[in-house]
Amino acid sequence: MKLGVVASFTFMICLNSCVINSDSIKKDIAYVLNRCEPNNLNLKTKSVILNNNFGELKLKLHVAKTPTELQTGLMCIKDLNKGIDGMIFEFQTPQDKAFWMYKTIMPLQIVYFNEFNESVGNFLMKPCSKKILENQNVWTERCLAESSNYIPQSNYLYVIEIIESYEDIDKLKNYLHKEKLNLLRNN
Predict the structure, then answer these.
(1) Side-chain-facing half-sphere of 90: CA atoms under 13 Å
(2) Which residues contact 167 (CB under 8 A, 6 or more apart)?
(3) What is the DSSP letter of 81?
(4) Same domain (yes/no): 92, 179
């Protein structure tokens, strides 16, 4: 409740547009606006390697496999535990739908991988936070429309969402710009 009061007070002060320089306060405001509740998923972790001819990157990721985990992903998560770089989504069959940023609080670099573990698309996804006084249906439709910016080139079986604070995020973006990445994972 304390968080809601602080965020509500901040809204009252900022209704006429203000610049908030604190990432923590921005996340708290988005958390309240998005009507988030604590995420009680007990997620496993997995280490993966992304590589191409320019190098390799190691990541430690939460794993989403169950229908609930796949649907919820990183929604309403303000920060990941230290040492966790994002989340890997593991589907049973190839998918063709874009991911969306509904109720997602932090920007994410997303990389889609096909059944051969080759990247088939990557995007920098921005949060789709609810706006003050925005109707629930309008917000949902806006987030769905924004997801059209994140459609991969072909079907995918695995997706990795990487937080912006990942220590090698600049290397990752550089590698993605140069050529496709390969996903090496342990089952």
Answers:
(1) 15
(2) none
(3) P
(4) yes
Which domain covers residue 8, as residue numbers? 1-33
pLDDT at position 55, please? 92
Q: 155 and 81, same structural domain?
A: yes
What the block records as the tokens of 172 is 């990752």
Are residue 29 and residue 58 in the same domain, yes or no?
no
What does the pLDDT read at residue 6?
A: 44
> Which token pair is 63?
């794993």
The full length of the chain comes to 187
Q: Distance of CA 9 to CAs 23, 32, 177, Å?
A: 17, 11, 42
How far is Cα 29 from Cα 25, in angstroms, rounded to an integer?
A: 6
As given in the structure block, the two tokens for residue 134 are 């925005």
- List all residues 6 or more positions away from 169 whose beta carbon is below 8 Å from its beta carbon: 109, 162
pTM for the predicted model, two decimal places: 0.82
Reading the block at residue 81, the tokens are 């535990």
Q: How far apart are CA 118 and CA 120, in angstroms?
A: 6
Tell me the average confidence (pLDDT) per consecutive run of 10 residues in the chain, 187 residues long: 45 47 65 64 89 94 93 85 94 95 93 97 94 92 96 96 93 91 84
